[in-house]
Amino acid sequence: TLEVAGCSQFTDNGFQALARNCHRLERMDLEECVLITDSTLAHLAIGCPVLQKLSLSHCELITDEGIRHLGTSACATEHLQVIELDNCPLITDASLEHLMGCQCLLRIELYDCQLITRAGIRRLRTQLPDIKVHAYFAPVTPPPSVGGGRQRYCRCCVIL
Fold it and tell me: InterPro entries, alphabetically (predicted)?
């Protein structure tokens, strides 16, 4: 297990060295390692073939390309059980497509991933029916009220 959550100075270079030497790593927490990019995921995909749990929450530079590297790796197809992608703003439904081959995947966290849709989650569940998907969708903004009333921006508040 490697927990470096909140280590905001860690870069891709550090994780490249780690992936070269930690081939038996099973759990990795990279939450809020804000400097890492898809390059780190490419190295983890190659160098950490038995990874079971990976947290990338608040890793805001991660994109679908990084998840593609991970989704086609030996660890993802044979071992990966949990992936946390909360607050990864560049992640889209394409990432869910890349993870569909992860037959051991039991849970995915997608809170505040604005580009993930319900349709994308439904497609993932078609391939992985036992997966637990944790996501949050903000309410749809209703249209301005008829008759010149104040505009409502969400279901729970009125801008005065």
Answer: FBXL15_LRR, Leu-rich_rpt_Cys-con_subtyp, LRR_dom_sf
